[in-house]
Write a structure and sequence with these properties.
With 167 residues, the chain is α+β, with helices and mostly antiparallel strands. It is 27% helix and 34% strand. The protein is globular and about 45 Å long.
């Protein structure tokens, strides 16, 4: 049974290794991650968030109702046009065990390549919500959290809400 890792756990700050083989264990982990994501009303979950230091993620695009299982995703290009939207993270919770949120500026569109759970290669241009989710989750694979994009004062204010959780 996988467990959610929370802000402060060092696994969230590590760069993940590429997946070299699609194993039954990997597929089972991805299925469990989709279930966890749905149970917590999330739209994405990356392997390090459940303590696995490998490059894979699951995400749900609410606009198309599509669930993606991405192995070794790579963002190959980003639009110059950016948009500011509110983001939260299932690994960064406040004292009520709810995700904390803040506005983050990111490219509005990205191109992504990945391998699916059957070993098939994919390439897609994602815009809007899907682009935001895949950028957020791919960041996790490099040890980057959405709070890293915030100005220091805003990040400190947000982290105070998270710290209260540990008090």
């Amino acid at each position: 049974m996988l467990q959610m890792k929370l802000c402060g756990d060092l696994v969230l700050r590590e760069k993940c290794a590429p997946v070299s083989e699609i194993t039954p264990e990997l597929l089972q982990n991805m299925d469990e991650m989709v279930q966890m994501m749905e149970e917590q009303n999330g739209v994405g979950l990356a392997a390090p968030q459940v303590g696995i230091k490998q490059r894979f993620l699951v995400m749900f695009d609410p606009d198309t109702k599509t669930t993606y299982r991405m192995i070794n995703p790579v963002i190959t290009s980003k639009s110059e046009e950016t948009v500011v939207l509110e983001e939260g993270c299932l690994s960064i919770l406040n004292s009520e065990n709810m995700p904390v949120f803040s506005d983050v500026e990111r490219p509005n569109a990205v191109e992504v390549t990945w391998t699916d759970e059957k070993g098939k290669e994919h390439h897609a241009k994602m815009t809007g919500t899907a682009a935001r989710i895949v950028q957020h989750e791919a960041d996790h694979l490099d040890g980057v959290l959405f709070i890293d994009y915030l100005p220091s004062v805003k990040r400190e204010m947000l982290m105070r809400k998270v710290m209260r959780r540990h008090a």
